[in-house]
Amino acid sequence: MRGTKSSLVKKLLWFAAYWIIGVLAVGALAYGLRAVINA
């Protein structure tokens, strides 16, 4: 049981890390597109 819980926590941490990276990437992309459009 203990091993399953720690692996679940690890999966959640990886999911959160990928989600944060994805949000930052999309935000940077949108910011760059807006800068190009405004230029």
TrEMBL record:
Keyword Membrane: yes
Transmembrane spans: 12-33
Superkingdom in the source lineage: Bacteria
UniProt keywords, alphabetically: Membrane, Transmembrane, Transmembrane helix
Protein name per the record: DUF2474 domain-containing protein
